[in-house]
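Case study.
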Amino acid sequence: MPTLSAFRFIASKAAGMLAVLAIVAVLVFVLTRAASGDPVSVLLGDQATAADIERVKRDYGLDQPLPVQFGYWLREVARGNLGQSIFLQRPVTQALAERAEPTALLALMALAIAAAIGVPCGIVSAVVRGRVLDQVFTGVAMLGASIPSFWLGLVLMQAFAVSLGWFPVSGYGAPGAPLAERLHALVLPATVLGLLNSALITRFTRASMLDVLGEDYVRTARSKGLAEHTVVLKHALRNALVPILTVLGLTVALMIGGAVVTETVFGLPGVGNLVVSAVLRRDYPVIQGALLVIAALYVLINFAIDLLYAVVDPRVKA
Amino acid sequence: MSLPRLTVRNLSTSFPTEDGLVRSVADVSFTIAPGKTTALVGESGSGKSVTSLTLMRLLPKTAQAQVSGEAAFVTREGRTVDLLQLHEASMRRLRGNQVSMIFQEPMTSLNPVLTIGEQIAEGVRLHLGLGRAAALAHARRMLDLVEIPAAAQRVHEYPHQLSGGMRQRVMIALAMACEPTLLIADEPTTALDVTIQAQILALMRRLQAETGMSLLFITHNLGVVAHHADDVVVLYAGRVVESAPVRDLFAEPWHPYTQGLLACLPGQARRAGQPKPRRLFAIRGQVSSPLSPPPGCAFEPRCNHAEAACRGAMPALVPAPAPAGNERQARCVRAVAKLQQAALARGVAPRAKPAVWSAKVPR
Amino acid sequence: MPLPRAIRQLMHRRIVLVAAGVLGVIAVLALAAPWVTAFDPHDTAVLQRLKSPTAEHLLGTDELGRDLFSRIVFGARYSLAIAAFTALGAVVCGTALGLAAGFFRRLDAPLMRVVDAMMSLPDILLAIALVAILGPSLANVVLALVLVYTPRVARVVRASTLVLRELLFIEAVRALGVRTSRILWRHILPHLMSPILVQLSFIFAYAILAEAGLSFLGVGVSPDTPTWGTMVAGSQPYAHQAFWVVLFPGLAIIFTALSLQLLGDGVRDLLDPKLKKVG
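After joint prediction, the assembly is written out as follows.
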């Protein structure tokens, strides 16, 4: 039942989101402009004549003051035009779209693995607090946060792809390969990402559960004679979910960052790989477009999680 | 006279801390008769809450409490079980079913993400085996019983939609849903305002009369005790210092601590025929730290009647040589000695010889 | 809490002691590199390439015949230095930012929006983008990482500052007319030392991992600089032949990062002992 206060809640969150996006846009624009120096020579190369330079400047509005150029750029972005990749000879949006699938599937698989490992371990950790198992989990979680993803990728690759041959060493399957084959190729990289990011989820879940398990209403639940698993899963977990959801949102950002490295290790044709090669080749339109899209995605995901809070916790709506 | 519903004998609960072992409850014994109300009185830190949590076996596992003693509870089926020795599974069958508890903080004692009806119904489903719909209907009836208006609507509401007084009523409904024979109420009205307090107390009294359940009422408010309790047990520093039927306690308190508590009541300050005193009475001093208790009687540093014997050893809790029977006890050398003399003077043989332990009580 | 008691409490946790010990060993090895290693890390010896660990070459040799142990010890100098400077820089900038946001109400919202914006990009990506802009050099890598981690510190410092600001003694000091800068420096900053130290330790750990990642991708320091990351990057093609060339630098990274995190955790536990231990 949407109420006025619910709309107000959504509106305020949306306003915050837009503010952040605006700043991101400014940052990305300024950064790439600062890096690329004179975009004209970048676009035209050394062979440019004075007339060419003048023409391009006018065409792209590069003779205007910087804020105006920013305005033009924003307008183009709003239309869905992120510019033209210098090296790939096609629109940035197209390049991103082509590369989106592997990254998206990788991130989702990794998130599933991370949550599947992290949440139960965190709950168990909280319930057996202080005993050996808890310390083991905590230790492993901390270990997980100390392992470089590329190293783990190489280790798993050596063990399972090179030595055992269970998975392809690299690549994403032949073009036109069925989904199953592509998912199969993603297992190792997703495991790397998932394992490493489960550490954070375990820690947060444990902390959140511990907080909730100390609350009065958990004591009330126990005083009713409910079985311990009912107390933990029905009474405690639902209240602990909210911070856990925050972490899942955070994890998505970590996934995208982690994907950059993992895609390079496993040779996956995803967005991360694209960004790395764009940086190496100074393909500024691609860098700019990719950063903007990724940041926007992250902000949107967090916004969605904020909305989810309202559903899970009835107090938020009031 | 039927069996007491609950007989607590020598209950002790200690907690290991960084600075040593803290004995929150030491050697506590009392009984509760069926259908009667026993009040457990004491100030903060006297061990009253720990006593109740120990009986319900709800102490947090991380506290690593060391519990000794016996708590004999007579079940509905007529069996006597020791609450402290029961298997956890058996204890769970009693909790919320035959023995219930309500807590001090109504604002935080209900789960914010579950409806009120669901929270009442789940206990009913578990212990009475009712189906979903029947349990919810029962929950509605319970809300009616505790005088919550518009119960049919409230059943689907969440705790944050109710005021403190209403939430405490819900807690009572929750605790009584399976008709327990013993209800432990840990300062149920302390967090509520005075007018609501009176309503809740009246409600509990009415429910007790209707169901015949026993009530262990924990409080620091003597006014409430006077109006609602049948028997009183006074705790100080984790030990029982006096226990008596309510009228006897208020008419003639024996232990200096009890006397001090009563003297603190503003009404007591006034004496007939004398001008209104300017100052309210207060017991001098403070409760000693549980980590460094006094060598003898715990109250001795604050007692105006202390003697040398009081510092020597912890006095024993001794029944009074009174004709009415074993109903009064006091842990005070002077009080019992005085009564012995009075009894001797009357020519009545003392019931029991008070045995003041000469050796230091192991802590 | 008083220092002697703090140290005693820290000693009680053996794991933290072990972590500090490991860090000490690594630091000493790094400082004393020329004296503890038998080989020059830059010496190539093509005949000795990809040899497995022996008594002579404790950790084996890499694809150019260079002694791996020597390279790792010398690499520690670079990796640790980069991470240390990053941590210091991020802590200084982040503290300044967090203090400003937490203490001056009007600066709070705009500053935090900027922080939010910077944190909306994954660390590695932001680092890559910044290095791309600044150009690949050691100093620029440090600068980029400082910019990446400053928001994190800023958030923590801001949170603590907000709490401290509301404490009564700050009101009293303000009522006495003490200058704001003095308040910040003498009254608030000392109380921030605890969370700052914790952050220092963690960011040191993150920086080690980040620099390794950047170097591995080829967008960090130049491949000639022997950091642990460049080692793995350079040796990667030979990993299937001689896995140790990749294994040992990685282990070095793991041990260092883990010890730093354990240390940070231990310090954090120390500062909040009562709150965390009960319940």
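Observations recorded in class. Chain C touches chain B through two residues (CB under 8 Å). The first helix of chain C runs from residue 3 to 12. We will return to this complex in the next lecture.
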